[in-house]
Specification:
Residues 54-103 form the Helix-turn-helix domain. InterPro entries: HTH_17, SinI_DNA-bd. Helix content is 60%, strand content 11%. It is mainly alpha-helical. It has three domains: 2-47, no CATH class; 53-91, no CATH class; 101-139, no CATH class. The chain has a three-stranded antiparallel beta sheet with strand order 3-5-4. A hairpin with a 3-residue loop joins strand 4 and strand 5 (88-92).
Amino acid sequence: MHTIDNATIATADIDDIVNALEALPHNTATDEIRSFAEKLRNTTITLIEDDEELTPNQAAQFLRMSRPMVVALIEKGELLAKIVGKRDRRIPMSELRDFQARRNRASKQFAEALAQSSDDTRRDSVLRRAGVSSEDAAELGF
């Protein structure tokens, strides 16, 4: 893992990178590098290689969820991790990216199914997803 702190890079250096990229043909690689350079103006960037292994705390930060949620996903087998030492866990970055892709696909499929369903089915799906029974929703006026 390598962190690039934008405070350590002069704005003029970023300008030089962006200007040099303008002279190159536009393609996926130059567009990504340009985007990366522009992000350096405002944020700290952390680079993580696919074969790098993260702690549950690091994985939680990457996935934008709590550490207990990451641990629960590992225990359910939804996120693969290995044990190092007696009880510490490490999650490969490639597994985190795969998990994100699976989660994004599931969200997209859910949204598509919801969009194609009738109003009653959609209402029931949303309530079920929120953990609210139809009876409780009716009682609350939903």
